[in-house]
Amino acid sequence: MQQLAYTQNSSQTLRYRKLHRKMKAGFWLVLFLGLGMIALIFTTYYLTKQVKAAENKINTTLNQYDELLQEHNTLLQEYKEIQEQQETLNQKFQLEKETLLQEKEELLKEVENLKKQSLQGGKKGKKIAYLTFDDGPSANTKKILDTLQAEDVKATFFVIGQGLKNEDKQALIKRITEEGHQLGNHTYTHNYSYIYSSKDAFLKELNQLEEEIKKLTGTKMTMVRFPGGSNNKLYKKYNKSGENVMVQIKEELKQKGYVYVDWNVDSMDAKTKELKSKEAITKAVVSQAVKQDQAVILMHDAQAKTTTAEALPEIIRQLKEKGYEFDILTPNSTQVQF
Ligand SMILES: [Zn+2]
Hints:
Layout: H1 2-119, E1 128-134, H2 141-151, E2 156-159, H3 167-178, E3 182-185, H4 192-195, H5 199-217, E4 223-224, H6 235-238, H7 245-255, E5 259-260, E6 265-266, H8 278-289, E7 294-300, H9 306-321, E8 325-326
Parallel strand pairs: 1-2, 1-7, 1-8, 2-3, 4-5, 6-7
Helix pairs in contact: 2-9, 5-7, 8-9
Bound molecules: zinc ion.
């Protein structure tokens, strides 16, 4: 009985022990699993947090990038606007610069004129008549020179080269300078279609005549008168490449020290085909001259213009009566240019 009880007891103990061992193992397993779970939860939590932080960082960076991009665009826009403004300002500046340069040019011209006037000792209001004869010498030159001599008046002759091989014409050229008149260059042939075909053509004719005259008189002509006046647009008809020949010629004349002169009084002796009466010529000259203190008078010394030479004594008489003195054109005279 006791033995049975003991056996029963010991088998109970054995079971108990087994159970105890199982429980122990279970406890460790549960503990281990629990700790594992906790570790997993923590790791997951930690990683999620890290990912979120990284996401936030990326978003912030993206936002900053967007802002920078926007700023960049704004700056680019501003830059473009500034560039446009600068361009407008540049254009304005260029325009103003050109206007100022032009004004400067005009003022310099005016100063130059005033200097010349004072050089001439001209008191304000001193009246000077510059008689000019274009297209000679001709059959009328002798008569003109005789009148000038008789009246003790000096004039300017813008001559051409036509017929200069003729000894009579050569003698007239010499007489013009010997008697104190001025010789000016009116081109060799006066042929519009050639002289206004190019700058070189004009200058060739200018030089050609200058050489001929130099041989006869020993002096260089510095005064020039454009056939047709300095404002003629004949080159448009005769220059085939569309260049502004007049601007080119004027530039070249300036560089070479020539001075061109137009007129502010037109005798009208070449305005019409039919011959003007000497009375009409005198009236045209005097009526225009009285409006000018410095009257540069255009007349013609051509074979057909007989009435101009006939009108000359009366023109001189009336101008003297109105208080005019007479002089020759020089680079220092008042420049009348169209
Ligand atoms: Zn002429």
